[in-house]
Amino acid sequence: MSLEYFIARRYLFSKKRINFITIISIISIIGVTIGVAAMIIVLSVFNGFNSKVTSLLVAFDPHIRIESKSSTQLSDYKTLEEKIKNFDVKASSPFTLNKGLASTQDITKAIYIKGIDEKKYGEVSGLEQSTVLGELNLQNKGDIGGIVLGRTLAGELRSLEGDTVTLVSTVGLEKSLTQFVEPLTKKFIVRGIFESDNKEYDSKYAFISLANSQELFDLGGNVNGVDIRLNDIKSSEGVKEELMQELGNEYNILTWYDLHADFYSLMNIERWTSFSILSLIIVVVSFNILTSLTMTVIEKKRDIGILKAMGATEKMIKRIFLYEGITVGLIGMVVGSLLGLLTILGQIEFNFYKLDPLRYAVDSLPVELRLMDFIAVPLAAFLLCFLASVYPAYKAAKSDPIKSIRWE
User: Fold this and answer.
1) How far is the C-alpha of 132 from the C-alpha of 267, rounded, in Å?
2) How confident is the model at residue 211 (pLDDT cuts 50, 70, 90)?
3) CB 87 within 8 A of CB 242
4) Is 80 exceeded by the pLDDT of residue 299?
5) How confident is the model at residue 61, as a pLDDT?
6) Is residue 380 within 8 Å of 286, Cβ to Cβ?
7) What per-residue confidence (pLDDT) applies to 405?
8) 51-84 burial by CB neighbour count: b if 16+ within 10 A, else e?
9) Is the Cβ–Cβ distance between 46 and 267 less than 8 Å?
10) Residue 299, Cα to own-chain centre: how many angstroms?
């Protein structure tokens, strides 16, 4: 143990009496501890929500979606599917996606109608696994097609498995208004009801066969795009870049992140806003450290003069007061990190912070540990504590030993 650290520790913890400076130092340690713990816990909660939301979205959304850039339809999608097989692609499936009306007796609701190839779509989406009533069967029975509804949508339409739903095409509606012809409609039997834990899908989406959708929306043999599932979702951005180079500029290529870019941007803003607000705790604490060390320099002015008279250099005096600030930062960052870790592990193990499952997709607050949070947050706190120590240490080092000895 160096002489400088020994003296710094004596100033912090070995005082004969508890004075105002000691109280400020203790408050500083507690403040750093609370600040570090709070930031780690909040970031872990954001990590948990981010991962949970991503898992829910990706369960239904593709890893990559390819659409035409010049129009809403793709005519050469089969050729496109052949080209993308050369990449890190697990499966692909064409789709149509259009707005329409769903009607049952006296209830009519505007919804999104997605046409899919049920033989392929199960490989790019979790629709089949999320079907809680009935089955994913979109085949026609005579002139009546099969349809799968979201659970909330089925409740709003008062439809159960085996009931009939009439879909009205927006294309047909436009023609009926201008040409006095009947809108394009088709009857469907509810073959299944899915629950995705995503309110957007559960309340607004219905799935029908690709052929029925092409007929209902007058698409001919065209589709609106191709959904792709990769072997590894983490390679989405890399595969996107490769596809852009291979396919050129005539296609619009979107990753799962791009499909919900606004939502993720909002989450990032909330994350950094919370981080910035909680950082103010440590900023305020750093001013406490600055104050306590400055007062310690004034109180120990005679000691500093004696040390200099005995041969202590300016660097040694600087290190004494830097070590005080560093010690406060180290204790706060270590204890705060441990407190944050124990809180997060407790939530993972015991779920002591519950959520209402009727209002949320989870029954308890989701948290996720990330190593970077336990590195970045404590280091940031330590850096602020160190910077707060620089000025008092410099002031102590530059004091005149003669005047310091005469201080008392």
Assistant:
1) 30
2) very high
3) yes
4) no
5) 84
6) no
7) 57
8) ebbbebbbbbbbbbbbbbeeeebbeebeebbeeb
9) yes
10) 49
Q: Which residues pair with 190 in a beta bridge?
A: 147
Residue of 51, 23, 30 whose CA lies nearest to 339: 30
Q: What is the 3-state secondary structure (H, E, C) of 118-130?
A: HHHHCCCCCHHHH
Contact 146, 139 (CB under 8 A): yes
Exposure string over 341-364, b if 16+ CB within 10 A, otherwise e: bebbeebeeeeeeeeeeeeeebeb
* Beta pairing partners, 150: 194
Q: Which of 11-20, 233-242, 324-333, 367-376 has the lowest mean pLDDT?
A: 11-20
Quote the mean pLDDT of the chain: 83
**pTM assigned to the model:** 0.76
Question: What string of DSSP letters covers 286-350?
Answer: HHHHHHHHHHHHHHTHHHHHHHHHTT--HHHHHHHHHHHHHHHHHHHHHHHHHHHHHHHHHHHHH
Hey, CA dihedral for 387, 389, 392, 394, is it positive or negative? negative
Spell out where 56-142 has E strands.
Answer: 64-68, 89-104, 107-116, 131-134
pLDDT at 320: 78
CA angle 380, 383, 386 (to 5 degrees): 155
**Other beta carbons within 10 Å of 302:** 14
**pLDDT of 73 strictly over 60:** yes
Residue keyed to tokens 């085949």: 139
Mind listing the pLDDT tens digit for each residue in 365-377? 889 999 998 998 9
Question: Which residues, in sequence order, are bridge partners of residue 101?
Answer: 110, 168
Lowest mean pLDDT among 12-21, 184-193, 231-240: 12-21
How much is the pLDDT for 178?
Answer: 61
Half-sphere exposure of 290 (CA within 13 A, CB side): 11
Give the pair of three-digit tokens for residue 184. Answer: 């394009």
Tell me the two tokens of residue 345. 């592990």
